[in-house]
């Protein structure tokens, strides 16, 4: 092989590698843009599927960001924060809605409540409205809301929830399934769903 042929072959290989590299970068950029066209909206596609306008999606994200600063955890959906690795989560109502919508709900979720089977759920508003905290473990959980709200015990049949004040257990529900659509949380410091 002559030096000219060798250098042309080397140049062709370099050009091919450069083109392949450029194509890979363009493909990667296109996929990133498709997954989340706006870094302010990490769940833009899900917000769009839920029927949110761009402004509503931004409002939702600001609300999620605010809760993340208060309670920690990680955002797992446009309106959901996973609080720990035991299944605890916080679900927020979408802009303009009073009740939460679990965008990834399973068929075992109580209709229109966002409360899935094996969970104890606390709502910041009456009639299962407002922010929703869901717990499925047998730990004490600080009451995340004050005043009047609501709750659902949708754990396994007969499992009771303990409501604690500063002195210990003050009240227990009758056992799952049970609920209270107008609950006074002013005295509740924590709950233990088991």
Q: Indicate the structural class.
A: alpha+beta
What's the main sheet like?
Answer: 7 strands, antiparallel
Element-level helix/strand string: HHHEEEEEEEEEEE
Question: Please, how many helices?
Answer: 3
Widest β-sheet, arrangement of strands = 1-2-3-5-4-7-10
Query: What is the typical, i.e. mean, pLDDT?
Result: 82
Q: What is the CA-based Rg, rounded?
A: 25 Å
- Strand residue content: 25-35%
Distance between the termini: 81 Å
Uncertain runs are 3-36
Using the alpha-carbon principal axes, give the shape.
elongated
Helix content: 25-40%
Total beta-strand segments = 11
How does this structure look, described?
- This is Secreted protein.
- Keywords: Signal.
- Residues 1-35 form the signal peptide.
- The structure is a single chain.
- The protein has a domain at 77-135 and 143-157 and 174-186.
- The chain is 29% helix and 27% strand.
- The protein has helices spanning 3-35, 44-49, 54-71; strands at 74-77, 80-82, 89-91, 119-125, 129-135, 141-142, 148-154, 162-165, 168-172, 178-184, 190-192.
- The strands form two sheets. Strands 1-2-3-5-4-7-10 form a seven-stranded antiparallel sheet, with helices on one face. A four-stranded antiparallel sheet has the order 6-11-8-9, with no helix packed on it.
- The longest helix has 33 residues, at 3-35.
